[in-house]
Structure formats: structure tokens, C-alpha cells
Amino acid sequence: MSQPTKPAIDPSDLDEHRPYLVKYAMLQLRDKDVAEDLVQETFLAALTAAGRFSGGSSVRTWLTAILIHKMGDHRRRAGREISIDAIAENEGVDDIESLFQANGRYVEMPKSWGNPEAALTERRFFEALELCVQGLTTAAAQAFLLRELMGFEIDDICKEINVSATNCSVLLYRARMRLRACLETRWFAGDNKGQGRRGS
Fold it and tell me: What is the pTM of this model?
């Protein structure tokens, strides 16, 4: 007689992922109540589809993918395609343009980032990155996180955040420029580097 199959997802294990998922949703939606509601919807969807979880990825990655789709549904319910011109008004395009001369060269060359790979192992680096992401517009943060954290293709990002391919590329460019400037100040400049912090 065959033994009963153990559920792929144990409901008691889901709650350990709640803080991460809420934080992830908060970075994109900037609304704690909505973030918590969508995480709860994510858990319900995960339990309903638990039998289809193959184990090919970690539970957290699987839950994050469900949450991303829930956030996409939320944005689509909220309305229209995002206008890049409206984003630019809120974002302050002049701040980015001020980094460049008329000939396209940097006004001030970017600072050395030392060893970025080593920085990625630093908990404090991720704290600095989170603060910098919070400084982005909602749309730019969404595009950046989907691309760099989840590895989405441009076409998939467009569908998730309801923008055109051109607008998505602009969002990613502006997000990277702003994060570069922010991280140079918060992390890679002088004694803000990882080694300097550990020694302080």
C-alpha cells in the first residue's frame, strides 16, 4: 500500500516568508495595507495550487512569482497605462540631466565601486540599496525590481506594470542612474564602503 504523499507546501511554513513578501510588495506599491492584503492573497493562491508546486525553485521564489502576478492584477484593476511624461514630472528629469554635459559626457566621472561582487554579500549593502530603491518613483522601482531581482524580460515587465516597451526602457535607465548616484553616496563613497563600516 502506497504511503500518502506529503503536501508540497506546508501551510505552517508560509508565515516565515511574510516579512520578506510584504517588504517586497511595499517597495513596489508604497502602500502597506495593500501590500499585506496581496501577500494574504498570495498565500491563499499558494495553498490552492500547492499540488502544482514542483520544487524546481525555492518556496520563496515561487511565492514571489505569485505575488508579482497579484500586484500586476492590482495595477490593472487600478487603471490605465502609465504615462512616461507623468512619471518624468514626478521624478525630476532635470536631476538626471544635470549629471551630463551637453556633449553627453559626465559632469563628474562616477566614483570607483571597488568590488561590487563583494558588496553583494553585505547585509548593510542591501539596507542601503533598499533605501535607494525607496527614493525611486513607484513605476521605476517596479521595473527595476522585476528586471534585476526577478530576471523578467522587458516584454513581461511591460505587461506587469502596464507600460510600453519604450517607456519600460526609459524607466530602467532612469532607475539605474538614480540608484548609481544614491549608492555612490550611501555605500561606495569613502568610508561608506563595506570594509570601512565594519571597521567603524
Answer: 0.55
